[in-house]
Structure prediction request, 227 residues.
Amino acid sequence: MSEYLRLLEHDIHIAALSFMGLAYAIRAFWLFSFRPVTEKSLPAGHPSRTVASSLFTVARPWTIEKHRRTPVFYAQFVVFHIGAAAAISLTFIIPHWPELLAIEAVVRLMQVTLIAAFVAGMARLYRRLSDPSLRLISTWDDYFALVMMNLFYVLGAWTISNRCGACGWIVLTFFLVAALIHLYVPFSKIVHYLYYPFVRYYLGKAMAHRGIGRYVHPEESSWRNKL
Prediction:
């Protein structure tokens, strides 16, 4: 068991990460190969301001109507993705910095984070299955990705609970799922986060040419209000 675990923790994990990194590099090169569209109009706003606003929309839920009306969905989004970061961090902590898991506060924080992410993931899966509109636009990739991530979270929480050694098959399964996710991500919808900065950058530039983000002088604003 220990030999298989060592192989998964180090060799296979690094190989899967390297494959994912190579796939991302190829996609990024492909994206940069497209010639950006040049706006023919003069910018009516400040491009740097609108680009920054567009990039940080994910951290400004009050700017999106859906998040204002249903903040619980935004909370699920945040918890789910923090859990992803925690689970991925765990794949490095266990083989390289296991002493961190001797700290009770770290263990409890990781457990709470991963369990909360699992609950959020199950809620997202239930909503996708129960909502007819979401079922209509969902593919097997959407369901499979959610199932894999939920499994990743619960195995991570279980691994920490067993102090990464009390029950070897749990740790073994956790690293096996982690490697499968790394190999699967480049071909799934999970890769959307690679496209996020590209999409948001060009959207921000386009908004600047449509007057969004333009600074309006107080005198001009008061003059407009009188009209």
Observations:
- The chain has a mean pLDDT of 81.
- The domain at 2-22+62-211 is CATH 1.20.950.20 (Fumarate Reductase Cytochrome B subunit).
- Residues 2-32 form the longest helix (31 residues).
- Residues 61 and 67 are 6 Å apart (CA to CA).
